[in-house]
Design goal:
mainly alpha
Amino acid sequence: MKAAKVLGWALAILGAWMFASPFVWGYAASGIVAEAVLVGILWVVFGLWIALTDRGEAVVLLAWLSALLGAWAMVAPAILGYGQVTAALWNDLIVGFLGMVLGAWAAYNAPESTPAPQPAAHH
């Protein structure tokens, strides 16, 4: 199995964790849930897409978007003002960092783009 596909599955699992984390850590009653749920869903979708496609250009785009989601998760506590919620802060810092690394790694390991098939020449 190619590295990008494995990394795609890892991103999907990371997304599932991000989605579940407010409920697991007990900060689901706060307004932080929307950010974690949205980022989690996007990571699941991007990760599954990366894992299930052979189109190199799609993998590169989705992997870099995943890395950007990781960067967002790391700064979201400061921007959205929930840095005082310790569990949310540390979860977003750690998971965001992992998402950035996995996304960049998947982009680096994307399969080569295959040229579009050329129509047969008529003589």
